Amino acid sequence: MAYDYIAFNLYALSAFPKKKPHHHLIPNLPIAPMKVIIFSAPSGSGKSTIINYLMKQGLNLHFSISATSRPPRGTEQNGVEYFFLTPEEFRQQIDAGNFLEYQEVYADHFYGTLKSQVDNQLNQGENVVCDVDVIGGCNIKKHYGDRALSVFIQPPSIEVLRQRLENRGTDAPEVIADRIARAEFELSFAPQFDAVVVNDDLATAQEEAYRIIKDFLEK
After folding, report:
1. Domain count, the chain
2. Residue 147 domain-assigned (yes or no)
3. Is the pTM higher than 0.90?
């Protein structure tokens, strides 16, 4: 009887269809798109020092590679420090609408940011840093919209800026006067930027800029 009971139960178990193991599929989570960080400031505001600090903070920040019409200097290589174009090639790119921003520093010496280069860097998984003048900053922000953060580095006052420029000891008085006049023009654009960091104390300004950018990248 015991053998019959065991046989019956084995038969009964075999009569039920076996359940296939159920695997819980983990959906592909969306990857946050890389972003553009734009910096503008009057000369002498400490922008370069703040940017260089941020580049070392593990935020995956990479400078955009600009185009220029000037000849290479020293060991500069095309596509590394700059994309070197002839003045005619640069003008052709302007006419084709391929620049996010550009400026002619003086006759036939252009600098600019190519749309294709910034997009290539974004597609390669880099957050791109653009160090440009205020008009260029506004143009890049307009192009990328919410994917870009524009940051204006501001001196505490024009008088402090003047003192900083004088303390450098590198510029003639007339050059400083020109820089101050331009700074007053550039300061009028500050309200158009997403964030304004006043560089009164460098360490404090660096920490504030880091917090602003980290929060933006984590959105």
Report:
1. 1
2. yes
3. no
